[in-house]
Design goal:
With 394 residues, the chain is an alpha/beta fold. Helix content is 42%, strand content 15%. The chain has 2 domains: 170 residues, Periplasmic binding protein-like II (D-Maltodextrin-Binding Protein, domain 2, 3-Layer(aba) Sandwich); 157 residues, 3-Layer(aba) Sandwich (D-Maltodextrin-Binding Protein, domain 2), CATH 3.40.190.10. The protein is globular and about 60 Å long. The N terminus is likely disordered.
Length: 394
């Protein structure tokens, strides 16, 4: 991706690129920290395990961590790191979805990694090796720029107790008997990608690449959703984790496209009143991963060794087993099964069986042919924005 392409994609993502860049100073950043601490910009809700703060992660890595919470907006993160003060503030940064690594690497905001300095790299999932399905997600122009932490294939949560069957197709969302009992995520990225996957694989719309649709393809997908919205098929488009979970907990909806942690929380909170499951859709799912990157500023400050120590934790079964058990995210390394068996006393009773069941079903989702990788910067992003606005206004 060259400078012109990055500028076009990243800055079109917001209403005003100039205004967004000017706002960079208003984004919370790390204050003056101990020079020995690794200053990271990360999502505390999903990028740490073991404790309510970063102490467990720091203990495993053997480094001090000075963390600043970041938002979920990819455009904000890229602008802060490229045109803002991110490289002055942070030694390492986590991503917000597919495409960020290319944008940051192309602008020199992050630097290539020496994977030989990460002992657990030998345990990384084979899909990340050169030629693997996910190899491109950690590389730019053939060089490794990031360490994967978590991944998933986003699907549908549903109340099995109420439905009496296990949906295996996105098409069940459009069954008239469930009118008003269906919810979709209020985010054009995962929602339009998953719906495009369904429409492509079911033969309803000719779509070349659900992750990077052409304007006429975006239009066709949104017109399909607008038609069903006008019929009252959707109860709502949910925003925020708690809102997504509450819809399922309350029984307001019977099925919802959502993140897997929402399903886990909803199932726990409903107890015996419902049975909230997470399905495998035969058409496919949006697959994605999150990773951590070493910033240009971090390298200039000599923080490589501390970064590699933390990256090593993210590729350890210690982290993988805990992110799987707590949030349902896929570990990025082999050896989780063996770790759980060997350290059963560290987890609540029954964790091993429950977690391995989640992993088995997750691997089944990852194996569906129609899966498409997340793309936070589709080529025709203006069409996505315009048609999403029309869908919301319908």
């Amino acid at each position: 991706m060259n400078q012109l392409q990055w500028t076009r994609r990243a800055f079109m993502y917001t209403t005003s690129g100039i205004a967004a860049a000017a706002a960079m100073g208003r984004i919370p950043g790390a204050s003056a920290q101990d020079a020995k601490a690794l200053k990271i910009w990360a999502n505390p809700g999903v990028h740490r395990v073991g404790a309510r703060d970063w102490s467990a992660m720091a203990g495993q890595a053997g480094v001090e961590i000075a963390a600043t919470a970041k938002s979920a907006r990819a455009d904000e993160s890229i602008q802060k790191m490229v045109v803002g003060d991110g490289n002055k503030l942070f030694d390492a940064v986590t991503d917000n979805g597919g495409g960020m690594e290319d944008a940051l690497a192309s602008q020199g905001a992050i630097v290539p990694l020496d994977t030989s300095q990460i002992p657990n790299w030998k345990n990384i999932l084979p899909v990340y090796n050169e030629g693997g399905l996910a190899a491109h997600t950690i590389r730019f122009e053939g060089k490794v720029y990031s360490t994967p932490m978590i991944s998933n294939a986003d699907s549908m949560a549903y109340d099995f107790k109420a439905l009496g069957f296990h949906p295996d197709s996105w098409g069940v969302m459009f069954d008239s008997q469930f009118k008003g009992r269906v919810a979709l995520q209020n985010d054009f990225g995962p929602t339009l990608t998953n719906m495009a996957i369904y429409l492509k694989e079911s033969g309803k719309i000719d779509i070349e690449n659900p992750s990077d649709m052409k304007p006429d393809e975006v239009k066709a997908v949104c017109q399909f959703l607008i038609e069903w919205k006008k019929k009252g098929q959707f109860r709502t488009f949910w925003d925020g984790f708690q809102n997504g979970a509450n819809l399922l907990i309350s029984g307001e909806v019977l099925m919802s496209s959502c993140w897997e942690p929402i399903q886990l929380v909803a199932d726990r909170e409903t107890g015996d009143e419902a049975d909230i499951r997470y399905g495998t859709m035969k058409e496919g799912h949006q697959t994605w991963n999150n990773m951590i990157m070493l910033t240009k500023g971090g390298r200039e400050r000599g923080m490589d060794a501390l970064y590699y120590k933390l990256a090593n934790v993210y590729l350890s079964p210690w982290f993988g087993s805990r992110t799987l058990a707590g949030l349902g995210f896929a570990p990025q390394m082999t050896g989780v099964d063996e770790y759980l068996k060997a350290n059963a006393a560290d987890f609540p009773e029954g964790t091993e069986a429950r977690v391995l069941d989640i992993l088995t079903r997750k691997n089944a989702r990852f194996g569906v042919k129609g899966n498409s990788w997340q793309n936070v910067f589709p080529t025709n992003i203006r069409a996505y924005q315009d048609w999403w606005a029309r869908l919301q206004a319908a």
